[in-house]
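Input sequence (139 aa), recorded before submission:
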Amino acid sequence: MPERARGFVWLVVPVIAIGVVLVGLWPRGATEADPEARAYNLSIRLKCPICAGESIAGSQTELAQDLRERIAEEIAAGSTDDEIIAMFVASYGEQVLLDPPSTGWGIALWAAPLAVLVLGAIAILGLRRKDRDSVGAEK
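Predicted structure, token format:
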């Protein structure tokens, strides 16, 4: 395999692997017909306002229990997942979201790990190329 193609493969394969992982982890709206499953999926995405980083689903505080009931009521009333999340954000601010939003600074938080991996791959390729060039120059 030519050297250029090998370098291209070293760059493209990790990027594709990272893409596959991100697509698998990307949060999706609950489309289940089961209201309990929707309520649970929403409650694991929202942070308990009085707990340190714990989801509404995992918290046993009275407030978390009330919020889980509120989510169930909103689902029964026909609210969408986005409407319910917007209601919580309006009441408690964006800090109620366990995942950073995919707008504004949230994009930077999602993109930073990917950028570090890509920059690391580029740096490794650059070092390997430099080593190859120095070995070729010695001959």
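Checked by second reader. The mean pLDDT is 80.
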